[in-house]
Amino acid sequence: MVAEMTGKSKLCQQIEEEIQWLSQFGADERNGVTRLLYTDEWYSAQEALQNKMKQLQLETYYDDVGNLFGRLNGTCSAKEVILVGSHVDTVKYGGKYDGAFGIIAGIIAAGYLKKKYGLPKKTIEVVSLCEEEGSRFPITYWGSGNINGIYDITRSTKIIDQHAISLQQAMHRLGFGNGTYIKPVRDDITHFIELHIEQGKQLEKSGLDIGIVSSIVGQKRFTVSVTGESNHAGTTPMKHRKDALFVSCQLITQLIELSKRYNEHLYVTIGKLNVTPNIANVIPGSVQFSIDVRHHEQEILEEVETTINQLVKKIMQKSDMKIEIDRWMSEKPVRMDNYLSEISKNISSEKNMMYMELVSGAGHDSQVFGQFTPTCLLFVPSQGGISHSPKEYTSGEQLEKGVKLLIDLLYKLAY
Amino acid sequence: MVAEMTGKSKLCQQIEEEIQWLSQFGADERNGVTRLLYTDEWYSAQEALQNKMKQLQLETYYDDVGNLFGRLNGTCSAKEVILVGSHVDTVKYGGKYDGAFGIIAGIIAAGYLKKKYGLPKKTIEVVSLCEEEGSRFPITYWGSGNINGIYDITRSTKIIDQHAISLQQAMHRLGFGNGTYIKPVRDDITHFIELHIEQGKQLEKSGLDIGIVSSIVGQKRFTVSVTGESNHAGTTPMKHRKDALFVSCQLITQLIELSKRYNEHLYVTIGKLNVTPNIANVIPGSVQFSIDVRHHEQEILEEVETTINQLVKKIMQKSDMKIEIDRWMSEKPVRMDNYLSEISKNISSEKNMMYMELVSGAGHDSQVFGQFTPTCLLFVPSQGGISHSPKEYTSGEQLEKGVKLLIDLLYKLAY
């Protein structure tokens, strides 16, 4: 089909084609993409992206954990790098857009700028970050984390996947992790820009084109363990029971009800709950469940933790049961850069794109970069808010608007 | 150890020894008993019991499903049979007393009466019922059910265990189920008497010797399926969620709270609950849970079912989620025989045994017999109320009181 017949611009077609092209590396039996860190599928995607970058005359290189870079050297201040990109890994049975779009967009934008304006004043680098999802190894942000120096690569012997292969073994298999390539940690990055699908419904619901992220939420995660007493359902009077599930249900109901009233930006989720022994005619002896709390203000996260502890204490006293609560994650909210947001807003307005500022409830590589470097996270809509699924979809026209914004943003920063 | 040294009576010692003796057939690695229907362990127990009965000069025979009988022929009305016994099968990793005690007690009582008074006027038969627990095949009361004609033996080809062996194949392996033995169904039983451990704490808590069961509860069991919408915990605002777990917790909390206030004899249990997809950062898309309702009055069971349906309807309307409820079991309460209860009370009083009338919240073979025949279910205390566990325990002295009551009861009925 040619552009004239579809009404699609050349850029739009190019984006659609390249998204499709990249999705073949790791294409899975569910019509989705499964590209787990350091697998053959993952490596074939990185190699293909390197070729793509080379075709556009970007200087390419890997770092020692397998982050792939394509560089346009700046003519004035080559040592100041504006980094643009996202992650190449996917979840199991993921979609074609999550992560991939940010890389494709970066390559197209760099190629476009190079062709139209020649080399920039400041260096632009496109990055295909090796890992963000935590789908193979129990670690997330392995790509951006190494660039920002928050990981110690020697720990990689202790992190193992479900087949007992260590992160180090997996790296070594592909020639990474043994000093062949440059060290990942960087001090030359002045800005990080990430274009991503929203993975939510806010843009779609509002009928908007662009989301300019003001903050990425902080998260606290807890495991709650309720210990009651397992007993026969037919011989233990209700007033003598220590029913761990009943107490858990009270706790969850009260917590969610409180959270709903608390603050519309507060997200509290109990996603996982396991009952022991989980037999219809036995009173549950113990229950374990997760609490996932997200908000973009640290103060509110702390308040919610206090509330949870008070609630647990109250219910524990009332029920005479043991309730233990373990906070195993506490990540602070990260603000995106105001200056980059303002430029993004101005460009959107100039181009008649409808935008909104929003908070990202999902984690992104920008969350790691944002702690060290002025960072800009931009969203395009996700159909139905669906992500981490073969059903993930954003139209070419919507992707195109994101890429146009990215091109102008890079132009303003680098030329 | 001799009786004089322990202070235990000969009868007490005999009971303890025979309980211990029977527990060797199917003794498992957890120091419990695993004697599943038609296994070698099960068969060795029945064969050993048959020998034991023969030693006491009982006439022994099997029926075609493997119920084992030991008979003292009545001198006046031989065709009127007073049946006494319980089930020989156990749960996996069960105890030494559940079922076994009722058989041992019956054999000892019959042997004692025969020795002391000769043959009875009415026939006494001791039965070792082949199956009650439903631990191997998804069917319960296979022994008493066949005696009372509620099962069709031809169905046995369709009932399979976890290794895909049919009930029929399992029977045939041991020579049962093919007409070699007499048909199980009986019309000559005038009374059924079962002595059993309580499997609850009521006697222990009250410091009593004997429980005389007035009724066995009826049961209704339901499976509730709540269908919401699985979504990302970080990108779906709480007011837009269809959280199947939150709704389930509300339902369970309200149901248990209502049930606690309703009637002290009402037992409502949610023992099993499964969340899908059960991932900490994903809003639960669906939840399935069980409801087990028990009471000794059918009217109350019906009222509770109505309450559950109303509650589900109310919460479904409020939450805009789909909630399906499937009642897959509805067993009516069964009253034990008043006349047999009165005799048992009188004997207990005469013997200075402390007794109470109680409702059995657990099912027993008496529940099947009680629908067709005057039936008497008698309990001795269970330490800590523990059953279906290697920790099941009742002292020899407590067992002895039950056996003494049984001897006198049989004497009054048969001599």
Structure keywords:
homodimer, 415 residues, alpha+beta, Alpha-Beta Plaits, 2 domains, nine-stranded mixed beta sheet, 24% strand, globular
Q: Can you characterise this structure?
A:
Two copies of one chain form a homodimer. Chain A folds into two domains: 295 residues, Zn peptidases (Aminopeptidase), CATH 3.40.630.10; 114 residues, Alpha-Beta Plaits, CATH 3.30.70. The mean pLDDT of chain A is 95. Chain A contains twelve helices and 16 strands. In chain A, α4 packs across α12, α8 packs antiparallel against α9 and α10 packs across α12. In chain A, strands 1, 2, 3, 4, 5, 6, 14, 15 and 16 form a nine-stranded mixed β-sheet that branches. In chain A, strands 7, 9, 10, 12 and 13 form a five-stranded antiparallel β-sheet that branches. In chain A, strands 8-11 form a two-stranded antiparallel ribbon. Chain A is of the alpha+beta class and 415 residues long. Chains A and B meet through β8, α8, β9, β10 and β11 of A and β8, α8, β9, β10 and β11 of B.
State the gist of this model.
The structure is a homodimer of 415-residue chains. The first copy, chain A, has 415 residues and is α+β, with helices and mostly antiparallel strands.
